[in-house]
């Protein structure tokens, strides 16, 4: 419970300036074992390692040091990389926690494959085992693939995945999910690429689970807010809203700041594409409210996309998106090294 101040401890600021607040029971424990996995992730390259603790046992103030435009809109964030400033902040926050803990974190991370099977398991001092696990994960995750850049990326988006029921219909989360795939695959996408995504886009926000999302979406539609970063200034106001905090603490909702971490990602789609199309939407106005174009079918979207990519675009179709663990595509002769 990141709003239970009886069980939180403030540790000041780390060497990169991030405010560090963490769970007090964890901080005071004789030994803390962090158990998780290393799997390709748009946010800092991989899950696991210090990301466990930098996001999992902190509060919104700490998370607002890295899940924000200043960090996520940097050129080192897209395409995905475990050398980005975000990853550096995860490491710095975790190591700052360790300075006042009785012992450093003992991390157990399984490197997973596309079907969630274990490739390898690493255990030990996080600072030492994290790069070793990444080195193995790179072989599975960063895939040399494309002989030439793709002009169009297309995939389907279910209603329920990752963050929960509504990820594929809540308009803020829809754009976040699209951006996540741009971050993963930017190395193989042309500079003028378009993205075409099928979604029922039925206006289902799932307000019970995402209580702050509809108000943030409505705020974006008015009061001179032209791009998503214009709304970022309201992050603290929403994060301190007691009604949303109570829904997070006592009614299984996401913390109100979660919406702002997602819109920071969502804007990346606009930064790196010529257009984004949602096809098959029941209530397409919600997609248009996020700056996306709407068409009835993939064929209609491809026809309109011709104004950006021509009549014979190179198309990347990803039919298993959101159904299996993703990879990070690269050009065929490209080599990725994170160490």
Provide the structure class: alpha/beta
Average pLDDT reading: 96
Termini separation = 35 Å
Give the CA-based shape.
Answer: globular
- Helix and strand succession? EEHEEEHHHHEEHEEEEHEHHHHEHEHEE
CATH architecture identity of the largest domain: Alpha-Beta Complex
Radius of gyration computed on alpha carbons: 20 Å
**Can you summarize the main beta sheet?**
5 strands, parallel
Q: Tell how many strands the DSSP assignment holds.
A: 16
Identify the strand order in the major beta sheet: 14-13-12-9-15
Given as residue ranges, the uncertain stretches (5+ residues, pLDDT < 50) are: none
The name of the CATH topology of the largest domain is: 2-enoyl-CoA Hydratase, Chain A, domain 1
Q: Tally the helices: what do you get?
A: 13
Beta-strand residue percentage: 15-25%
Q: Just give the CATH class of the largest domain.
A: Alpha Beta
Helix content: 25-40%
* Count of domain modules: 2
What does this 3D model show about the protein?
This protein has 339 residues and is α/β, with parallel strands linked by helices. It folds into 2 domains: 1-141, LarA, N-terminal domain (Rossmann fold), CATH 3.40.50.11440; 149-313, 2-enoyl-CoA Hydratase, Chain A, domain 1. Helices cover 35% and strands 23% of the residues. The longest helix has 16 residues, at 85-100. The radius of gyration is 20 Å and the shape is globular.
Describe this protein with a few key phrases.
3-stranded mixed sheet; Rossmann fold; 23% strand; 13 helices; 2-enoyl-CoA Hydratase, Chain A, domain 1; 339 residues; 5-stranded parallel sheet; 2 domains; 35% helix; alpha/beta; 16 strands
